[in-house]
Fold:
Amino acid sequence: MSNQAPAGASGIKILVIDDSNTIRRSAEIFLKQGGHDVLLAEDGFDALSKVNDHDPDLIFCDILMPRLDGYQTCAIIKRNARFAGVPVIMLSSKDGLFDKARGRMVGSEDYLTKPFTKDQLLQAVAQHRRAA
Structure:
């Protein structure tokens, strides 16, 4: 079976950036079950090249990552005119008001607390792809 969603399906290209292999794999499984095309990146630097090469429709970005954190990664993506309109949803293990506010400051559209369920992930996709 190919990774591409069937013609006419509602699948979009989604990049998941997280340094946790477990989170990346579960997000990939949930999103593919939702009919989406999934790209994975394990840190901000890896993500920036993938954004450039694959032009995703939506990005899930972990906040706490080595080298380049989620806020920095989101800010760099949003500063590029080509990708400024791509919705970025921050992922964090803590549901903090400060983190949400800081995420908004760097241009993220939403915030999802880990661990997330398949429903929460697909609901975020549905909500933000409409806004795009």
Summary: The helical segments are 21-33, 44-54, 70-79, 97-105, 118-131. The chain has a mean pLDDT of 91. The longest strand covers residues 13-17.
